[in-house]
Amino acid sequence: MSELKLFNKWDVSEVQVNDAGLKAHINLKPRMTPKTSGRFSQHQFHKSKMDIIERLITKMMVPGHKSRKHFMTSGRVVGRYITTYNIVKKAFDKIHERTKKNPVEVLVRAVENAALREEIAGYQVGGIIVRRAVITSPQRRVDLALRGITQSVYKKAFGKKLNMVDALVDEIIATYNNDASKSEAIKEKERVEKESEGAR
Questions:
Q1: Residue 142 resides in a domain
Q2: 71 burial class (0-12, 13-18, 19+ CB within 10 angstroms)?
Q3: Is residue 170 assigned to a domain?
Q4: Over pLDDT 70: what percentage of the chain?
Q5: Contacts of 44 (CB under 8 A, 6+ apart)
Q6: pLDDT of the residue at 34
Q7: HEC secondary structure over the chain
Q8: Which domain holds residue 190?
Q9: Distance CA 104, CA 69 (A)
Q10: Which of 1, 51, 102, 143 allows an S-S link to 34, with CB 3.0 to 4.6 Å?
Q11: 128 domain-assigned
Q12: Integer Cα distance of 11 and 29 in angstroms
């Protein structure tokens, strides 16, 4: 029996997660098509069982979503899984052309680079709200990294000449290289961590 490869091209069995904190929350189980049809959506922490590629696709379907509201429009990308699936598939081909590396490994390194380590939480003490630095949980680190990447992609492509595929390729490679001048996800991570450092 032949090995399962993502999109029938990319071998994920050779990809390792270097960040020990994220190991349990970046699922790299071999599968040909990253789609679980909402199997884990009814359970609070089961999204970590979803393939990391599927989580990227579902984030890209509604990039403007942040907490309980849309802080920017999601435009025409909402609801069609196959459309976003094809965008990611084409982007992975281009990432391989430009880096000569397994695109799944490039994405995993990008998520590790964009994952926050601490952020700010506000809580009430008496009549005032105090802001304190808190450690970010591993699952939330992955969520925020994927959100940062997808929102950055959407900002680069919405109303611009750059299409979604090229914007996704540029963002993932810039995040993989940890380049804050080209990656909005890295820039946002550094901003939040700098704020939290001042609130310790």
A1: yes
A2: exposed
A3: yes
A4: 96
A5: none
A6: 80
A7: CCCCCECCCECCCCCCCCCHHHCCCCECCCCCCCCCCCCCCCCCCHHHHCEHHHHHHHHHHCCCEECCEECCCCCCCCCCHHHHHHHHHHHHHHHHHHHCCCHHHHHHHHHHHHCCCEEEEEEEECCEEEEEEEECCHHHHHHHHHHHHHHHHHHHHCCCCCCHHHHHHHHHHHHHCCCCCCCHHHHHHHHHHHHHHHCC
A8: 20-198
A9: 30
A10: 51
A11: yes
A12: 10
Cβ atoms of residues 104 and 10 within 8 Å: yes
Q: How many residues does the chain have?
A: 200
Residue 177: half-sphere exposure toward Cβ, Cα within 13 Å:
14
pLDDT digits (tens, 9 = 90+) for 131-147: 888 888 889 899 999 99
Is 100 within the bounds of a domain? yes
pTM above threshold 0.85: yes
| Nearest alpha-carbon partner for 6 in 149, 112, 105 | 105
Residue with tokens 């380049």: 179
Q: What is the CATH number of the domain that holds 171?
A: 1.10.455.10
> To which residue do tokens 């299409």 refer?
163
How many domains does the structure of the chain reveal? 1
